[in-house]
Every structure is written in C-alpha cells, then in structure tokens.
Input
Amino acid sequence: MNDHPWNRHVGLSIVIPLHNSSMVLARTIERWLAYLSHGRTEIILVENGSTDLTWPLAQELAKDTPHVRFRLAQSEKGMGNALRVGIEMSTAPLVLLTADDLPFDFTDVDEARKLDPRPHIIIGSKAHPGSQINRHVHRHLYTYGYRVFRRALLGSEVGDSQGTIIADGDWLRENVSLFTEPGFLFTTQLIYAAELQGLSIAEVPVVLSKDHAPKPSTVRISDAWDMGVGLLRLRRARRALSVQQSPEVVA
Output
C-alpha cells in the first residue's frame, strides 16, 4: 500500500479496467471528474493488453484535481487480472469496480448512497426488478441462462454477479488472493466468496445509459462451454473461498 498522506483521506477507490478503451476513455474521465465534485477519490486505471492507444491516452488524460487522484497501472490481458491489480492498489474504505464506458451512468452509485446501514457488498444489478435495462432478447436469454447455471452449480442467490460492485475495501484487499479468475468470471468469484463467507449483500437498481443501445449477443457456443467449465471450477474452489483471509495471510 502506498503511504502517501493523501491516501489516509480517500473515501472511495474506483477501479476501471481498460482494454482498447481509446474511444470512450476521454468522455468517461470527463464525466467522472464532473460527478466527483467533493470529497477525496482515487481513480485507478488498469490497462490490460490493449492493441490501440489506450495506455498513452490514459497517461495523457489522468490529471489530478483537488478531489480526484489518478493512479495508473498495467496488467496481463483479462478483466479479472486488471481488477485484481486495481484492488491491490486501492486504499479507500470503499472500492467501486466498474466498466470503462459508464454503462449505468451514475445510477448505481446514487442508489448505493441511499442504503443505511451499508452492506459489505453492493451490486449495481441488471436483475433488480427496479432496473431499466432495454436489452436485446438474445442477450437477455444468455443472462438468464447464466443466472440459472450459477444458481444450480454454486447455489448463488445473487441476481447479477457481473454488475458494478461497491465493496468494503478492507475485505477486498484482505481476500484478493482468493480471486484468481483472469477474465469475466472474476466478479462472479468475488460475489461467490462473499456469499460463502456470510457477508451482507444488496442489489440496487440501475438504468442503462442511453448510449448503450440494445445489441444482439455475440456469445458463441464455445463461450457457453467456457462459462460452464468456469462455474465448475469455482464450485471446486468452494472450500478455499469460504475461509476469510487475514491481512497477514495476504501479505
């Protein structure tokens, strides 16, 4: 952990994986800076295996303000790899894991602020009955199928394990060594561990950004196979995931 004095006053760490994000990055950063008009927040940008100009663009755009401090890193390709690096770098009591294109604008964060008391894990959930998600029917069916398989194989009661996540920072950093998935299953593994360890979890409604028009799913048969294999892999790791780690173990 970085011991810079500024870190002791950070209220929120925002971890954003970047992969070929050059078309959306400038707008995303601009909108975050406008939204974060008070307090102290760190935005951690983690580029992972991009083949475009994402990395030099991130270095150019990441300019600190009185309310936001940027931290940059690179990881191996894979959303999970990027999120893991970002969690390890985070310093705040709350950590937001989100996407590079603000799929829900700030509706997930706004809804999370309303919760009192605050649970350990808050999910900006597409499965919440109050969410406004205009998705293509194929994508809806894939999401529903994933939820059914996840519940059958893992016993997970969470509606959406791949939404945005706001989590207790200490718990995340203490348990990050358990989260080994390199790709899209990372957040499912994280949520599964939280369920097994008995953490409080709440899903909040989100509104899909107007910039995210309905698109047909690009999921292939091989993707569905990988999903099943990945869920079985998580199931085999049940015992390890159910034991909460301590800071000394992680160190």
